[in-house]
Structure formats: structure tokens, C-alpha cells
Design brief:
By secondary structure, the chain is α/β, with parallel strands linked by helices. It has helices at residues 2-29, 56-71, 110-114, 134-142, 144-148, 171-183, 215-239; strands at residues 42-48, 76-82, 118-126, 157-164, 188-189, 201-204. The protein has a single domain (44-93, 104-239), classed as Rossmann fold, CATH 3.40.50.
């Protein structure tokens, strides 16, 4: 009987010690206000690759960026880069030389996109013959510069928007073609989020340069912007 009592007392004492140690350890490991770091601000950039400045591709990207910003207004900055009117020579990606006196605008885009603060990039293109615009192809070809620069776009989150003249006019083919190029940059490519959750944002131009009546397409654009923002924030949180 005495040995049993001794054993019970021993187990009670051991349990009390473990519990006390657990509480003490939790108190020690709990971060203090002093140790907490301020939430990191990130930037999400939209790149409109339509040769027509400020039209439906740019409008679709604004919807994406507004939705991205709404995820965490105090932590997310957004910027729209409209390539319309810029001179971007795709042949220079393979070492070609610009004609004498010709200007090329791609170099000014490099620091904007490679900026460590940029955590997400959304590329938008109109649909031409079930594929991206020539301007978009030239832009993506010139992005070879980022691969050559130690994959400067690696791990940034990427999404794609395509605007077509009819509902099933090649938007998804265009998105997949652009995504293939972005994967070659080691980017984290995402589609539009729930509940649509497909390859990306697919919008319809009604023939009057208006996408405002395309409720489904607008929903995909909002979902894409939100998805890019959520994944970008999650990656930043893991990296901290």
C-alpha cells in the first residue's frame, strides 16, 4: 500500500512539473510586442499588352487590380502598365540589334518588374486568332532578360487575363500560351479563384469596347485578382 501511495504522489508531482514547464515554455516562446515585425507591403502589377491604349484589356486588368487591392488595402499597392504606344522589339531577345536611331522601351520596364517589392504580375492580352497579341509576344520574348539575370521573376505570382470578341473566341488558348512563357520564368502561375476557378480571367468585348455587361467575365477578373493577392501574401508570410 505504501508503495502505491508513493507512486501516486510521484506521478502527481511529475504531472505538475511537466504542466508548469509547458506553461513556462509557452510564456518564454510567445513573441513580445517588441519582437513583432510590421506586416510587409507588397505590390501587384498589371501589364496590358493591347496595342490599343486604355481599351478593354486595360479595363479588365483594372478590375483585377482593384480586387487584389481589396484583399488587404493597407498592405497591397497596385500599378497598371499599359504597353500601348511603346516600342518593344522582340528580336532583341536573341541578341539582335536595334536599327540605327530606333528607340526601344523595354529597358524601362525591367526595374519595375524585377523590384523585390513586386510579388505578383498579371498579364493581359486581347485575343488575336486564338492567341496573344504581337505586342504581348514581343514583351514575353524580351522577358528573357529576367532569366538571364538569375531568374529575377522567379517565385513571383502570375495570373493572366484574355479579352476576346466572342465568348468562346480563344481566351483560354491565349491564357495557356502566356502561362507557358511565365512558367519558363519559374513564376508561380495561378488561375482565377473560386467559384469560377479555371485557367484565368476570360472576358468578352461586346464590339463597342465595353466589358461592363459581361457579368461572368468580370467575376473571373475579380477572382483572379483576389487569387493572385492571396497567394502573394501567403508566400510573403512563409518567407518571414
Amino acid at each position: 500500500m505504501a508503495s502505491r501511495v508513493t507512486r501516486r504522489r510521484f506521478l502527481r508531482a511529475a504531472g505538475t512539473t511537466v504542466a508548469a514547464g509547458t506553461v513556462a515554455g509557452a510564456a518564454t516562446s510567445a513573441p513580445s510586442a517588441k519582437d513583432e515585425q510590421p506586416a510587409k507591403t507588397i505590390k501587384i502589377v498589371g501589364v496590358a499588352c493591347s496595342p490599343r491604349k486604355g481599351k478593354t484589356t486595360a479595363a479588365a486588368l483594372r478590375i483585377c487590380l482593384d480586387a487584389a487591392k481589396a484583399v488587404a488595402p493597407e498592405r497591397i499597392e497596385v500599378e497598371l502598365i499599359d504597353l500601348a504606344g511603346m516600342k518593344i522589339d522582340g528580336s532583341l531577345a536573341v541578341g539582335g540589334a536595334s536599327p540605327p536611331g530606333a528607340e526601344d522601351d523595354f529597358p524601362q520596364l525591367v526595374p519595375k518588374l524585377a523590384d523585390p517589392k513586386v510579388a505578383g504580375i498579371i498579364v493581359g492580352s486581347p485575343v488575336y486568332f486564338c492567341n496573344m497579341s504581337a505586342l504581348c509576344k514581343a514583351f514575353l520574348d524580351r522577358c528573357f532578360a529576367f532569366r538571364a539575370k538569375q531568374f529575377a521573376l522567379a517565385n513571383k505570382v502570375a495570373g493572366v487575363v484574355a479579352v476576346g470578341g466572342v465568348r468562346n473566341g480563344g481566351q483560354e488558348l491565349t491564357i495557356q500560351s502566356i502561362q507557358a512563357a511565365l512558367l519558363c520564368q519559374e513564376m508561380t502561375v495561378v488561375g482565377d479563384g473560386r467559384p469560377t476557378a479555371h485557367t484565368g480571367a476570360t472576358l468578352l468585348n461586346d464590339g463597342k469596347d465595353d466589358i461592363s455587361k459581361d457579368e461572368f467575365g468580370i467575376a473571373t477578373a475579380k477572382n483572379l485578382g483576389r487569387r493572385v493577392a492571396e497567394v502573394a501574401l501567403a508566400r510573403v508570410a512563409v518567407a518571414r
